[in-house]
Specification:
There is one protein chain. By secondary structure, this protein is of the alpha/beta class. Helix content is 48%, strand content 11%. Among the domains are: 287 residues, 2-enoyl-CoA Hydratase, Chain A, domain 1; 180 residues, NAD(P)-binding Rossmann-like Domain (Rossmann fold, 3-Layer(aba) Sandwich). It contains 31 helices and 19 strands. The protein has an eight-stranded mixed beta sheet with strand order 12-11-10-13-14-15-16-17, sandwiched between helices. A seven-stranded mixed beta sheet has the order 1-2-3-4-5-7-9, sandwiched between helices. The longest helix has 22 residues. The radius of gyration is 28 Å and the shape is globular.
Length: 720
Amino acid sequence: MQANFRNLRLETGAGGVGVLRLDVPEASLNPLSDAVVAELDQALSDLLADEAIHGIVITSGKDAFAAGWNLKEIDTLMAGRPTPEQVLAATPAFSRFLRRLETCGKPVVAAINGLALGGGLELALACHQRLLANRPGAVVGLPEVKVGLLPGAGGTQRLPRLIGLEPALRAMLEGNSLEPAEALELGIVDRLVEPTALLDEAILAAGASGAARVQPWDLKGFVIPGRLRPGGPGWGEAFASAVAAATRSGYGNYPAPLAILSASYEGLQLPIDRGLAVERDYFARLAAGSVARNLVRTMFINRQRAEKLAARPAGIPPTEVTTVAVLGAGMMGAGLAYVLARSGLRCRVIDRTPDIARGALAYAERALQREIKSGRLDEEAAARVMDRIQPGADFAELGDCTLAIEAVFEDREVKADVTRRAECMLPSGALFASNTSTLPISGLAEASRDPTRFIGLHFFSPVERMPLVEVIRGRQTSDESTAHALDLVKRLRKTPIVVNDSRGFFTSRVFATYCYEGQMLLLDGVSPALIENAGRFAGMPVGPLAVMDEVSLELQYHVVQQARVDLGSEFVEPPSWQVLRLFVEELKRMGRKSGGGFYDYPAGEPKRLWTGLAQFYPTAASQPSLDEVKTRLLYIQALEAARCRQEGVVTSAADADLGSILGWGFPSWSGGVLSLVDTIGAAEFVRVAKDLAARHGPRFEPCDWLVGLADRNGSVHDLD
């Protein structure tokens, strides 16, 4: 028997075994979808109707087995803001098919030849045996928690019944991919097989006499493996501690971990069919909520679009870059050199002296040792990376560099001098990029011989770990320069957003408001501990005072002073300038690097809030609620982002959201700094903002763009 479908192939193997190969056209990872499931269901019917077929193998015609459900379909469903009941009505087919598969009466073997994540692993779990190719990249896992969902096609019910409660909960709550050896050790797969023998072994297993055709959980007397069993010793305590850990890590902002725990706790005490119904109910609640909708849209759909260079100007052929100049070997310059070399590019690092420039080699050596220790790189590959970094102090060495990235101190004159000296030696037509975090690109481009070839590439520290690059177009930056800058970002496997020129651009400008508002709360007499805890409970990585210490109060002080010089009579001091001035000019507490700022950093001990804060900023007798402080810290950022959107600094909510989450850690549960407005509702957001403005000052006054959005009950994504 041989049949053809659009998304799979069905054929007969040896010994009366039907082989079903997933092969979704124009996709590398076999995403599951309603169309794929419909064909799977029909193929199963065909196989069951053929009496000559004694067993079934499910495999893939691609390098990957199956990558899980097509999140674009889920995004489309969630964009309509469905009720849980509507989600349930729209999503039963896959779960129903998997239950039919495992109760079909014929042995079914999964030949997992590559990656099997999410729904792909759930498909394999519904098979009676699982053979996994023993090769790199053949990973398995249930990563749904990372997009605010739970495994909704049996994962919370089958995996614990297969491998035990504790390892199953760990796999689902962490959402990590498991390598073949770990998958075998946990019991997720039955055997590891050499890739070339995988299909033959699977056909033999499916056609063997006595091959399993019933799942363990469908047998009478089935008991969940492991020491923890429903109602037994430690069962309740295990869930209680898991709930506490999940709540503590996400501060209650992410419902998916608790839903996974609830679905597992309730469903595992029931027969499998009723457990699957419990799981579907919890999945529907998550899919109908704002957190999953925000995470799927921003962290998957929009991030994928950005990484595919959706913002790249059309019709411009790519340029081949082989050698890049990095001007400055400080932390940013050294980090840039390492990332460039790690991606296969030669890198010439120039600084004042050869010894200073060689700091880039030391930085790369430390980074490479970490990669070798983790097993991501071997010594030979690391040596090749080191060979690509060539430090020096002579600008004459830049003659073969078709792209230069300046990463010197945030001072306009220093940057101008480096630009002029480098461009004298760079070949004609070379692209020149500044890694400035605040200084307007159009002003810096005045020192360039060709402002059309001058652009901002704002990387974040540490460069090797931070995924975002903010690409800043100056007033004269050409489309060609923008396209070539984006090509480089893609080569480095970073996520780009494209913004227009402004002081602080988008990321630094909006992030600064979080830091300033923390200082304004100090001025208002709010307890420093409450300020810091509110930042973390809102979902920010650290509190606003701690982050100022890390960034350096001195650096922020110089940014403000540079703006004072540049803007002259138009300069407006930040609302918290008096705090910044006091710490830098009088107290000489400039942050962690100087030994202390808002925090003390005792040797060998955890940092702690500086006790001297109370002397300068006494705590008021009446303190605001935690929610009120959280609101101030989040709203001030969203309001500034909206002003950037109104001014055209950022041209889409998608870029604003990605920039905020990947750039400075704005809470991902919100979908990003502008999606927060949608999550709350534009009308309600504007109402609260106006109330904050009345009580705390005009910095909370919503801009016209936001007010108009509220008046028409619109979405921040309407114009994307």
